[in-house]
């Protein structure tokens, strides 16, 4: 998967990133910075793209 490829993210994560990006743009950030902030926030909250369901929690 090339860098910047968002295909492994869920629809919910993509919607969250779009909402955050819009908020950052409204706050006066550039498009590039707003996108970086949005995806960094989604990654921090969820740990990245889709998770494997094979993990077991004890």
How many DSSP E strands? 0
Strand fraction equals under 5%
Q: Measured on Cα atoms, how large is the radius of gyration?
A: 13 Å
Distance between the termini: 31 Å
Give the structural class.
Answer: mainly alpha
Give the overall silhouette. globular
- SSE succession: HH
The major sheet is characterized as:
none
| Helix share, percent | 55-70%
Give start-end ranges of low-pLDDT stretches: none
Number of helical regions: 2
Region (Disordered): 1-32
Protein name: Transcriptional regulator
Question: Would you mind describing this structure in some detail?
Answer:
The chain contains two helices and no strands. With 58 residues, the chain is mostly helical. The protein has a domain of 36 residues. α1 packs across α2. The longest helix is centred in the N-terminal third of the chain and has 16 residues. It is globular. The relative contact order is 0.18. The model has no long low-confidence stretch (mean pLDDT 86).
């Amino acid at each position: 998967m090339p860098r910047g490829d968002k295909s492994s993210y869920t629809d919910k994560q993509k919607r969250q990133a779009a909402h955050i990006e819009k908020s950052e743009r409204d706050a006066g950030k550039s498009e590039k910075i707003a996108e970086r902030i949005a995806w960094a926030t989604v990654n921090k909250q969820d740990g990245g793209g889709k998770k494997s369901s094979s993990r077991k929690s004890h």
